[in-house]
Amino acid sequence: MASLPTPPKSKSPLGKVVVIGGCGFLGHHIVNLLLSSYSCKVSVVDLFTNRNRRPDSDGVSYYDGDITSISSLTSIFEKIKPDVVIHTASPNLVGANDALYYKVNVEGTKCVIEACKKTGVKALVYTSSASVLSDTQSDLVNADESWPVIPPSAQIEYYSTTKVSFLPQPFDCKADGIRPKQKQRSSQQTVPRVY
Q1: How far apart are CA 22 and CA 150, in angstroms?
Q2: Which is nearest to 73 in space by CA: 6, 124, 29?
Q3: Looking at domain 13-135+144-180, which of 3.40.50.720, 3.40.50.300, 3.40.1010.10, 2.20.25.110 is its CATH number?
Q4: Catalytic residue list
Q5: What is the value of pTM for the model shown?
Q6: How far apart (Å, rounded) are the C-alpha atoms in residues 65 and 49?
Q7: Quick check: 83 and 121 in contact, CB under 8 A?
Q8: Which of these, 90, 91, 73, 72, lies nearest to 82 by C-alpha position?
Q9: Phi, psi of 61 (to 5 degrees)
Q10: Could you read off the pLDDT of 83-138 as tens digits, one per residue?
C-alpha cells in the first residue's frame, strides 16, 4: 500500500519584516531564510541595495537608507510599517576605522531602536558578534546566549567594544514599545535575548 503524501508544512506568519543590512553577507542569508521558511512581506534597508538582491518576482522591497540618520529610518519605517526589524548592519572588518565602527554599531543601533519605538515595531532582533564572547585566544565551542559577555572595558578589539558597549541589558519589545528588560542567568552580563 502506498503511503499518503504529507501535506506541505504551513509557514509561520511574521507579518512585515525589515532586514537592516539585508544586502550584506548575513543579512541576505536571513532574507533567503525568511522567504523560504516564513509567511511574511520582506523589505530590506541598506546603505546601498545594489548587491545580493532577490529576483523581483520574490516581492522583496529594497530601500536605500542610512541607519545613522533617525529621519532616514523613521521615514522608511513609516512607509513599511514593520512588525519585526532584524538589524544586521555593521561595517566590514576590513578597511573600516574606529570612528565608522562607533558611528554604525553604536549610534546607528541607537537610531534603529528609536525608529522602532517611534513606529510601533513589535519585535527587534539585534545580531551582535561572536567576538563579544571571545577572548580572541580560545575557540568558542557550543557558545550560546548563556555565555557571559566580555564587558566593553575588557574587549581587545574596538569593533567588539562597539558591538557590546550599548547593550547593558536585553530589550523587551512589547506592544507598548521597546524597553530594557532584565533577564540574566548569572551575576555576569549575558548576551541579550529579544523576545
Answers
A1: 27
A2: 124
A3: 3.40.50.720
A4: 163
A5: 0.79
A6: 9
A7: yes
A8: 73
A9: -95, 140
A10: 999 999 998 877 788 999 999 999 999 999 999 999 999 999 988 888 888 877 88
AA letter at 98: D
Distance in angstroms (rounded) separating the CA atoms of residues 72 and 76: 6
| Segments in the chain forming alpha helices (H) | 25-37, 70-80, 98-101, 109-119, 158-164
pLDDT level of residue 9 (50, 70, 90 thresholds): confident
Pull the grid cell for residue 191.
Answer: 548576551
End-to-end CA distance of the chain: 46
Strand-pairing partners, residue 18, are 43, 85
Structural domain boundaries of the chain? Answer: 13-135+144-180
The residues, ordered by sequence, that sit 6+ positions from 87 with a Cβ below 8 Å of its Cβ are 20, 21, 67, 109, 112, 124, 125, 126, 127
